[in-house]
Design goal:
Layout lengths: L2 E7 L5 H18 L4 E6 L2 H11 L6 H10 L4 E6 L6 H12 L6 E4 L15 H8 L1 H4 L5 E5 L8 H12 L5 E5 L6 H10 L4 E6 L6 H7 L7 H7 L3 E4 L8 H15 L13
Helix pairs in contact: 1-11
């Protein structure tokens, strides 16, 4: 076996989230691409350290994983991130891939969930995402998709998603982020404008980890759960990461197929013999 797929995520220190989402995705990738060796890496060095100290679980950084693949004699690598947006973590992965571009016969980088939109010959990633989670969106409840958010310009993906949701008829779905825009206050204004009295909070994240358990769903005064309730709005909680939805995970399968088919544009430097 001289080919490998390196699956890279931010990571999680919650073992249930690791099993239910990240491992689930990795297993689906292994089932689909049996001729490839599947490896795991996390971009969060803090989580890697915590997993080792708390659970004695060792996870490599992207560079460490690529070094191990080189030592095994792997010649062709596809690096597939599990990140939602092309933010700082994705840039980190892209920089690592570029550094290894002359060490493998070929090394190629797949795209995150929200990347392409509005160009005819390229995948419509936002619409594909919406289609992949229709089992949730079509429940006709007033839904709030709870994302991470970032100061990075890639945060604009969340506003784009909100617009595409409206374009596709999902006026009952609101997108918010804990560390970016749209903020809680932005979402609250939209909910109140519609005179909505009950919402369902749903993670717009691959894993239901720390942000979901604490910032979204906890009883702490500053959680979204508590803050909506303080405004007289009833809250229902969906405590599953997107990685627990098989149709969502198919998006990663297709991204890898797109890399193999050479359909990627503007994703970073690659090298082919």
């Amino acid at each position: 076996m001289d080919k490998a797929i390196l699956v890279v995520s931010f990571g999680t220190s919650y073992l249930d989230a690791l099993t239910n989402s990240i491992e689930r995705i990795e297993n689906k990738i292994q089932e689909e691409f049996g001729e490839y060796k599947i490896s795991r890496a996390f971009t969060s060095h803090k989580i890697i350290k915590k997993l080792k100290e708390k659970h004695n679980i060792e996870v490599d950084t992207p560079s460490e994983s690529l070094d191990k693949l080189l030592a095994l004699g792997i010649e062709e690598v596809i690096v597939q991130p599990l990140h939602m947006i092309a933010g700082e973590e994705f840039t980190y992965i892209k920089n690592v891939v570029n550094k290894y571009s002359d060490k493998f016969k070929s090394i190629n980088l797949g795209r995150p969930i929200f990347y392409y939109q509005g160009i005819e010959e390229l995948p419509q990633d936002y619409s594909l995402f919406i289609e992949s989670v229709k089992e949730i969106l079509d429940k006709k409840e007033n839904l709030i998709l709870f994302g991470h958010g970032t100061a990075n310009p890639s945060n604009s993906a969340y506003g784009c998603l909100q617009t595409v949701l409206q374009d596709e008829g999902y006026d009952n779905v609101f997108v918010g982020t804990v560390e970016g825009y749209p903020s809680f206050d932005s979402v609250l204004k939209r909910v109140k404008k519609r005179n909505i009295k009950e919402v369902t909070l749903i993670p717009l994240m691959v894993v239901a980890g720390d942000h979901v358990k604490n910032d979204m769903a906890s009883e702490k005064a500053d959680s979204w759960n508590s803050m909506f309730k303080a405004e007289g709005i009833d809250v229902k909680l969906h405590l599953k990461g997107l990685g627990e939805i098989d149709s969502f995970n198919e998006l990663y399968i297709q991204r890898i197929k797109d890399v193999i088919a050479g359909k990627m544009k503007g994703i970073g430097e690659t090298k082919k013999a």
